[in-house]
Design brief:
0% strand; 9 helices; mainly alpha; single chain
């Protein structure tokens, strides 16, 4: 029994290291594209994407920490770290909306800027899915598969609402502490008067469905690969 646990832990660690390697290479490509653009144009047009990528790394780091923690330590930190994870989680898929910044600019080919933003958006999406998988597995172990998928769907729906708050109302995760009154007022207003804000629920539901279908696809592809290796 102890041998199987040890082997399983080693397999998980190896899988995590492989994931970190691939994500690291993908993030390095985004950083290289942004740096190359700055050197070429002497302008800081897309440097803000570096900050967005950092924010996307936060929930992945938190979920990784929970995944590595064990026993009593995980039980003690699960709620506070889980709350922090949920607060920062929308920052990862939020980068998809940075495609709004794409339009022809002098000095750089349009295809270069497209590749740059798509690279950052892809990294944000993959960090979101990898982080959500960690959290879903934690919930599944405690409460079962159905509850785990319910948690994943709810997290993606809430993240889509967070995307709306960030992109259109210009709130960010820090506003929970620095500007809570305005944040909660705007949220409560939209909850009490949903018909007055069709854009809010259009973005929330459409992006939530898109993210959920994408996540389910990634999960299914992973299972197909696992079965193929058996």
């Amino acid at each position: 029994m102890s041998m199987s646990v040890s082997t399983f832990s080693q397999a998980q660690l190896r899988q995590r290291l492989n994931l970190l390697l691939v994500l690291g290479l993908s993030l390095a490509l985004s950083v290289a594209l942004i740096t190359g653009r700055v050197l070429l144009t002497r302008q800081l047009t897309f440097v803000f994407l570096l900050w967005n990528l950092f924010l996307a790394l936060v929930p992945f780091g938190l979920s990784t920490m929970l995944g590595l923690a064990a026993g009593r330590l995980r039980a003690r930190v699960l709620l506070p770290v889980g709350a922090a994870w949920l607060l920062f989680f929308p920052n990862a898929p939020y980068i998809l909306t940075d495609l709004f910044h794409l339009h022809p600019r002098p000095g750089v080919p349009y295809w270069y800027d497209l590749a740059l933003i798509l690279s950052c958006a892809w990294n944000g999406l993959m960090l979101a899915y990898a982080s959500l998988l960690d959290m879903q597995q934690l919930v599944t172990r405690r409460l079962g598969t159905l509850t785990g998928w319910g948690f994943a769907a709810l997290a993606l729906l809430l993240s889509s609402f967070g995307i709306y708050l960030g992109r259109y109302l210009r709130f960010n995760s820090w506003d929970v502490l620095s500007n809570p009154v305005s944040l909660f007022y705007d949220i409560l207003t939209r909850l009490l008067h949903p018909r007055a804000y069709p854009g809010t629920w259009g973005v929330t539901l459409l992006y939530g469905l898109f993210l959920l279908l994408g996540y389910a696809t990634v999960r299914l592809l992973g299972r197909v690969e696992e079965k193929g290796e058996e």
